[in-house]
Amino acid sequence: MAAAEIDVKYVAHLARIALSPDEEKKLSSQLGNILSYIEKLKQADVSGVEPTAHAFPLVNVTRPDEVRPSMSNEDALRNAPAKANGLFIVPKIVE
Amino acid sequence: MLNQLTISELTARLSKREVSSREAVQACLDRIQNVDGKIHAFISYDAADALAQADAADKLLAGSGANADRLLLGVPVAIKDVLAVKGHRLNCGSKILGNFVSPYDATAIQKLKAAGAIVFGRLNMDEFAMGSSTENSAFGVTRNPWDTARIPGGSSGGSAAAVAADECIASLGTDTGGSIRQPAALCGVVGMKPTYGRISRYGLVAFASSLDQIGPFTKSVRDTALLLEAMSGVDACDSTSVPQPVPHYAANLEGGVKGLKLGLPKEYMIGGLDAEVKQAVDAAVKQLEKLGAEIVEVSLPHTDYAVATYYIIATAEASANLARFDGVRYCARVDGADPIEMYGKTRGAGFGPEVKRRIILGTYVLSSGYYDAYYLRAQKVRTLIRNDFLEAFKKVDAIVTPTSPTAAFKIGEKSDDPLQMYLSDIFTISCNLAGICGLSLPCGFTKSPKLPIGLQLLGKPFGEETILKIAHAYEQSTGWHKEKPPLA
């Protein structure tokens, strides 16, 4: 893979972060540098190597499907920016 | 001065009723009042709440009940701002969480409280644990107590500085790529990252879920063992915590190093390593040999890929973990015409530049068309890095390295060049990728200015007992741990 240039505007949209034009420019050059450094991974021989998602892979960690006490509605809403009737209030999603 | 004591010294005096927990906590609060203006280790702390906890501890100490299972009764432990403590502010060094007050205790915090510790304070950190200098905090820079023009390390800079300055008896930090061990080295204290899965991550605000671990900062190896024992254990609330029995870590410290094999990875003693750091680490290795250890050269051939691998995996995981900060259920919300606009504005206003940088990078490496070339490949290299260690541990009991290539650098020296900052993690990062345990302890100082140098010990998965034993033997045969920074 050639040292790709990140389309910062597009990726910022995916990440839901509103950037100023200044931030976009600065990030573009900084991330370009970092990506060039990361290119060295291309040299590693990974043929036949399994990926590691977790250093100590546990399997099927489950608990019985029983209702247990959890956080109260009041506690869950305590830090809400906007709330009413035991619900979080957000801007309108659908017309 | 009571705030200068270690955990074992303080608990001994508390149990003999020579001093009270209230006196110990007050001594810490007085010290914070005197010096924190210079170092800014604390974002905030609640003195009244800490003293109330101390009074409760004193009642238990005075009572007739048995306190044998409360290993930390009456001991003030300060907390990195990334851990949930019920009723305390939780900001993760960021503006985005606004006035968030935690509705619950992290499991590690619950365990500290059950052991009788006084849990207090919000210690400064790089925002969302992303950084190596504590220059990325929205709440100001923390300064190294040994030279206040220099960084304390990061991301747990506040946690390291507070212990070094005797503002608390011990503290908690977190380590994803070295964020406990590196500041411990730069501030001259003991810092440990347990094996992945040793301590529950429930209540630790996640940065990189496959790399994060909570760990202690202390003034002695014995204290580290005590905190590790108090916090370890499988937890139903964290499905990545491992059901491995918890040994009495503090009881098994005295074994010595005779007959142990210590590996020196040839890839680590390279250029970029400061001459004084190399000198101190070489001397420490000689000391360990004198104590009876056998030094063996080992090879960790994929060392060179570690930083690149980390900055793909950690940022990818961070991009997912930080997606929750969207202004819906919590956050300093910035309104928008629709939710998408609200998310963009809230996150744009609330996240600092390093966090944005990492989220964007992480989103990119996971995005369609790039996932295979970056993230999947990095996960495979991670396997190679882990295997390097597992191979080495067939030949040796522990691995010895410098913790950091340099001593503490000046505030502002690397903050303009993110890549330079990332490369300073070179010795600590592989440990998180491999999931093994590691600790840093003091092994000397640079000449002028006098700055601490740290020795790192890396152990097998769940090999904490071995590295604690080695560290304890080295510590007890030297005087580094007795030195204090020249603060007022």
Give a quick set of tags describing it:
heterodimer, A: 95 residues, mainly alpha, Histone, subunit A, two-stranded antiparallel sheet, 3 helices, 2 strands, flat, B: 488 residues, alpha/beta, Amidase signature (AS) enzymes, eleven-stranded mixed β-sheet, 15 helices, 11 strands, 13% strand, globular
Task: Tell me what you see in this structure.
- The complex is a heterodimer of chains A (95) and B (488).
- Chain A has helices at residues 8-14, 21-38, 73-77, and strands at 83-84, 87-88.
- Chain A is mainly α and 95 residues long.
- Chain A has a domain at 1-44: Histone, subunit A (Orthogonal Bundle).
- Chain A has a two-stranded antiparallel ribbon.
- With 488 residues, chain B is α/β, with parallel strands linked by helices.
- Among the domains of chain B are: 2-259, Amidase signature (AS) domain (Amidase signature (AS) enzymes), CATH 3.90.1300; 304-378, no CATH class.
- Chain B is built from 15 helices and eleven strands.
- An eleven-stranded mixed beta sheet of chain B has the order 1-3-2-4-6-5-10-11-9-7-8, sandwiched between helices.
- In chain B, β2 (76-80), α4 and β3 (118-123) form a beta-alpha-beta unit.
- In chain B, α2 runs antiparallel to α3 (47-62) and α9 packs across α12.
- Chain B is globular, with a radius of gyration of 21 Å.
- The two termini of chain B are 14 Å apart.
- The mean pLDDT of chain B is 96.
- The chains are: A mainly alpha (95), B alpha/beta (488).
- At the A-B interface, α1 and α2 of A face α9, α10, α11, α12 and α13 of B.
Provide the fold topology:
The complex is a heterodimer of chains A (95) and B (488).
Chain A: H1 8-14, H2 21-38, H3 73-77, E1 83-84, E2 87-88
Chain B: H1 7-15, H2 21-39, E1 42-44, H3 47-62, E2 76-80, H4 107-114, E3 118-123, H5 157-164, E4 170-175, H6 181-187, E5 190-193, E6 213-218, H7 221-231, E7 261-265, H8 275-290, E8 294-298, H9 306-321, H10 339-350, H11 353-366, H12 372-395, E9 398-402, H13 418-423, H14 429-434, E10 437-445, E11 452-459, H15 464-476
Helix pairs in contact in B: 2-3, 5-6, 7-15, 9-11, 9-12
